[in-house]
Amino acid sequence: MKLSVTTDIDLEPKSGYVTWLDVKVSDGVRTYGSARVALVHVGEAADAAGEVWPALHGTRLEPLHDVYFAQGWYKDDYADGAGIDLLYIEHITIAEEHRGKNLDLALVRRLCDTLGSGCQLAVVAYGDALGAAHWGRLGFAISTPGRTSGLMHMKLGYRHDQVVDPTGSGDYEVVSTVDPYVP
User: Fold this and answer.
1) Which of 49, 95, 154, 171 could make an SS bond with 54 (beta carbons 3.0 to 4.6 A apart)?
2) Phi, psi of 148 (to 5 degrees)
3) Long-range CB contacts for residues 91-99, cutoff 8 Å, separation at least 24
4) Do residues 121 and 86 make contact, with C-beta atoms less than 8 angstroms apart?
5) What are the pLDDT digits (tens) for 54-96?
6) Which DSSP string do the residues of 8-20 spell out, in sequence order?
């Protein structure tokens, strides 16, 4: 399976500080899932406006500001110097027959390893404790404690578990980075 990523980027440099990406998981013939992802260009926004708020204000990404940013930059809890941008996974849809096979985890892990390589954080929303536990398997931590739903983050400057398909059957497993398994 492969990820196909499409986007529209305006040629005007100050047209926005968020790039939306449409991601499709397929084998070239059949589509197994899709995702909508945003790259928030935190460094560009901060350089242009002195802070991130203008890039997020009035958009569906506005809730990210109060959780992750203060005084124009990442809050200390999230500023590890690993990168400057933020990868936000807005939603993932997986075909019914592939649900429960961790394809969503594989998709996000691969996006973090590639498109997220210049990002400080990857962020995903969770709707309940089960969802939080699911994303926690990949290394996401709750950013909004004490809530039944909210946001989770993963610091991309650290080594995280990998998601592999050891049999080639499309059934993915989370493998610890300390395990001897080499894909």
Assistant:
1) 49
2) -80, -20
3) 91/35, 91/36, 92/33, 92/34, 92/35, 93/33, 93/34, 93/35, 94/25, 94/32, 94/33, 95/31, 95/32, 95/33, 98/32, 98/33, 98/170
4) yes
5) 888 888 999 999 999 998 899 999 887 678 899 999 999 999 9
6) ---SSTTS-SEEE
